[in-house]
Amino acid sequence: MTAASAEPVSAEPVSAERACAARQTPACLVRAPRENAPLRLFCFHHAGGGASFFAPWPGRVVPSVDVLPVQLPGREARYREPRFDDVGRLAEALVRELEPWLREPHAFYGHSMGALVAFAVAAALERAGGRAPSALFVGAYAAPHRTPPLPPADRYGDAELARFLVDVGGLSPEFLGRDEWLSALLPVVRDDLRICASHRKAGLVVPARPSLDVHAFAGADDTLVDPEAVRAWERYARTFRLTRVPGGHFFPREAPAPFFRELNAALVRLMPGRAGRSAGPG
């Protein structure tokens, strides 16, 4: 807008509702953020997954927290969009999209690959001078300086990769032998595995200084990620807590009650003024 075309500035105060309405909901969010939420929880999904992984969460997370699943391009409702295969570029794109919604209190939860993505977004947000998340919750993923728990993108053929996904609980066995289904899914998985392998290129292995409060979750029966590899996130934390919960690699789905009990207690502690003291539905 040029100076000549600028409209006069109204002296009337802008209401919170009008100000928030002016912020368009980004494509990466499956719904508009809720107004006046004390805390927003942005959730990042696992490799080969989508935002639908978090569909049950609003009914399990303490009601005052606004649960906002982040949908990466190239899957579910965004399946026609080009996918990313580099976590650094993905994080920068997400910060650009989400920045208007990151000015109020917020936290990140990332599951498996999503833990790396959430950490990369927090790092990109810090570089951009933005508001840091009140906490970074990471689940079922090794710290960046440890060997990535997921295999390289091209290690397995399609049948072997599908079997691997079934074995860790990330794919229904009914997909096995369904070439038409796998032909749509496996390219997404392979690009996500490339995201996981790009952490060194993105400079995420050694943080300049620990500036995040990190709460890590490890499944007691997770055959893919060792709890000590999850504990290694302590290197990246200003304060750190590790919680082992029942279940395997996808413990929020396999054994939800103990996990959400712990998550809700942590979220309540983050609330401004400690609003919403109830631990929620769990």
UniProtKB/TrEMBL annotation:
| Listed name of the protein | Thioesterase domain-containing protein
Q: Name one Pfam family in it.
A: Thioesterase
Under the heading InterPro entries, the entry gives:
AB_hydrolase_fold (IPR029058), TEII (IPR012223), Thioesterase (IPR001031)
Q: Which domain of life is it from?
A: Bacteria
| PANTHER family for this protein | S-ACYL FATTY ACID SYNTHASE THIOESTERASE, MEDIUM CHAIN, THIOESTERASE
* All copies of domain Thioesterase, residue ranges: 40-262
- Report the sequence similarity comment from the record: Belongs to the thioesterase family.
